[in-house]
User: Fold this.
Amino acid sequence: MAIGKAISRVEAGDKVTGAARYTEDVRVAETAHAVLLGSAISAGRVRGIDTRRAERAPGVLAVITHLNRPDFAAVPPTPYTAEGRMPLVDDRIHYAGQYIAVVVAETREQAEHAATLVVVDYHRTSPVPTLDAALSQAYIPRENGLARVPSEYRRGNAEAALAAAPVRVEEEYRTAALSHAPIEPSSTLAYWEGDRLTIYDSTQSVHMHRPLVAIAFGVPEDRVRMYCSLVGGGFGNKSYSWPHVFLAPMAARVVRRPVRVTISRKQVFTGTGHMAATVQTVRLGADQDGRLRALIHDSVNQTSFIDDRQETASAITPYVYAVPDLYARIRVTKVNTGTGGAMRTPGDSAGAFALESALDELAHRLGMDPLELRRRNHADVDPVSGRPWSGKQLLACYDQAAERFGWDRRNPEPGSARDGDDLIGYGMAGGQRTEHQRPAQATVDLTDDGTAVIRSSMVEIGGGGLTTLSQIAADGLGLPTAAVTFQHGDSALPAAAPTFGSMTSGSTGSAVKLAAADALRAAIDLAVGDRRSPLHGADPDDVVAHEGGLRLRDRPGDGESYRALLRRNRINTLRGDGDFQPEGEDAEHAMATFGVHFTEVRINRYLPRVRVVRHVAAFSIGRVLNAKTARNQAQGGIIMRLGAALMENQRPDPVSGRFISPALTDYHVPVNADIGEIDVIFVEEPDTNANPLGARGLGEICAVGICASVANAVHHATGKRVRSLPITPDKLL
Amino acid sequence: MDETTRESPPSRRAFLSRSLTAGAGLAALGGTGTATAAAPAVAAAAAVDPPETLPVSLTVNGRRRTLRTDPRTSLLDALREDLGLTGPKKGCNQGACGACTVLLDGTRILSCITFAVMFEGAEITTVEGLADGDRLHPVQRAFVEHDGFQCGFCTSGQITSAVGLLAENPRPSTAEIKELMSGNLCRCAAYPNIVAAVESAAEGRS
Assistant:
């Protein structure tokens, strides 16, 4: 069995030698370079824009503004078109950094220089700078905004149940705006041949984004070919087509040459979304024995003046615990900022900070162990639909992670544990993520040299899909993983599920499994019908794949290699098709992934910087496809969110609303020295109720619950309850 | 090039000072300003058209290369655009992420915040130059074995940085590895595996 094995990544050799090709590494002859000029103000309009000096600068081919741009054919649909307003359509400015000109030149240096020569006359209006400034204007967006979940959910009468509950916690929690900050800045290279458009784009899904570009430029989808093999970090920001993606083909049309747009690091922060800041209130009502009676979770997030995009912080809340009376609501409010976007893990990460912090406060008030509180409110079935879970090993996660961590050594008294000048705190929190599935297609070709080729448009973003899907095909055909190659990242291939929303394993993985089974079936049919085959006349159901060929299940000696079978029949390849269609709303089971986190913090009592020295997490995600890549991904999700817990904050300037730290020098993400010991446990149980493969997603659930676990540990260490992220030293002084 | 500058430790300050010196150099080439004050010199350089290209000869991965490049071109852009290498990556173009790390005469530097024309006669090694033919460098092998990456975009810089680190300090402690690798950001946060890879490469060597 290849599945589950801790094998090294199939693309590892390319990644350690510099041979791996990302979008910025693609070279096309005669490529011109475009630099995007961003607005210096955050609200108003462009009264005048003087491009004459820029146009005369050496090497400049064109300067495109709202005054001279070609028209877009149409506005492609949101949400995967990131902004509902196409770039350069008018003189209006909605946020700082919004693109107002495209400078195209022979070289990047020339374009950068010329962009500095553009003179802009702005008409400023008064911006709405911050979430706080707009909080009183919060509203439920019409047509549900851009979210796929309802803005409101109600069961029972939460207000009445809360009023009647003997123990209550009612608090406000805040999360900061976060930046995805992938190390690869987004890049798009586009060229036209007549009405055919070729586009290399750093996208998490060529098939989700190709139609958007086709619509914007009014060409049939089959005239657009989009490529992306490898993404240098996405975390959600490359799951949308941001404005630069449309400006590259536009510029290529204007200068009649291939044009590359690679946005600057600053533009990664301003032009490819962020996780919106939230203000949330959680109200819990419980019995003295810790049984939850009422839960009200209300969230407001900032959105742009262009779009209503919800950070769906309370969306998961109805599904997590067995609470009879519950109300959840998600509102937005307009701020002069760019449109936010899904960032690992949209909604649930911010929501879990509030909910799991409130539960810790309740446990403290009840004098109850916070883990026991969660056990008492375990949702045995999905509390929303009443359906059984497809698979849920959360109680086992609790047990195994608590034991590994040594939770039973915790003295519940805050401030009770010390080591010299260090205050020591133990905290825990849970996490849950609804499992999403999408249709996915793949083919698997069995070739006459005894190897197999997977064809599916999947983009590798680092989650390990190239490797795990190769393992799936290898198992399906009885081949070593090394005998499987993967053609991917090309819209001409069968459509994979997007590489976001934790859908690769479950959806694209299932498509590969089905395709491999189809190819195997074709090989078996060929063999049993072939007089010259040792398997001739056998019942197809008695034939199995084994070590590069076929054999009888009961008589291992009888069989032959794929190579012999195909060559004798003069067949180059046998193609298997895989078409995974999720069951959707009618599924018998509710599907989710689950996790629990335990964190040890140490805080110097004179300089209260929080250090996470130890973190143990356990996850219930069905089957683990590759122990090595899965562990890496889970550690990474935890560490990314430790950044949100302790340092990451994309602060708006209180006057202009402009992000004041759009650089990696100022927007601090975790570095190697920040990281203590991270321990990950997978409580495995193949979940074939969810999909044929039995695997659910990992990339998102691993990043839910960490912030609350840290905050709860900080409370245990210090007695201080920090309800606003990130937990910086000033909040503990 | 000033030898003392080149041999100074690979701190961020050293790179910045090197960049500023280059800015002053630009101004001198443009015929205005003096090389004494960096900031006015840079401003002056922007005001006139710089010479379109300048020649520079340097050794990259053991091969002597001569090119003409825009004096504004960073070493990173010259490696990528003029010499066609894809290993060194542009993550931030501000010296903050480490994805562009290369070795200058064996010492790690950030190639994005220094100008190509400053490297006349220098010996540069990128991640492409570490393997011996098909035989991976021990640090590369350790990164494969320990899965020291996910998306891979920072990996060239991480590996080059680790090679430089082990040259500076062949037997680093775990804490030293964490500290000395902290100039190389990994947003996928494969940090525990990066540390394991560097540790195992160090042990293999000792």
User: Anything to note?
Assistant: The longest helix of chain A spans residues 504-528. Chain A has a mean pLDDT of 96. Chain A touches chain B through 66 residues (CB under 8 Å). DSSP finds 17 helices and 27 strands in chain A.
